[in-house]
């Protein structure tokens, strides 16, 4: 189990899902292995699968919604998913505001 994951967060809660997603995105810059994994994929469902493998639970629809709010395309070109996710992460304060 990943220590950064929060198993006590209420499943399905939008706030806890966003929190888990942003904790996952926050790891990308420090974890080269995670970056490499993410750069092999081009879709949000693929990112969700990688997040789940690392102990983070969030829905593809949540990530796609963030992409839309950040004016990011729903797909990444091969090798660029990490950069797309980092751009979303850097806007987390604005995105988490009510």
Folded structure, characterized:
By secondary structure, the chain is mainly α. It is 56% helix and 0% strand. The protein is built from six helices and no strands. The radius of gyration is 12 Å and the shape is globular. Mean pLDDT is 88; it is low at 1-11.
Order of helices and strands: HHHHHH
How does the major sheet shape up? none
The assigned structural class equals: mainly alpha
Characterize the overall form.
Answer: globular
The fraction of residues in strands falls at under 5%
Distance between the ends: 31 Å
The count of DSSP E runs of length 2 or more, i.e. the number of strands, is 0
Q: Could you state the oligomeric state of the chains shown?
A: single chain
Q: State the low-pLDDT regions, or none.
A: 1-11
Radius of gyration: 12 Å
Task: Briefly characterize the structure.
The chain has 98 residues and is mostly helical. Helix content is 56%, strand content 0%.
Supply the key terms.
mainly alpha, globular, 98 residues
Secondary structure topology:
Blueprint: H1 14-26, H2 32-38, H3 44-53, H4 60-69, H5 81-90, H6 92-96
Helix pairs in contact: 3-4
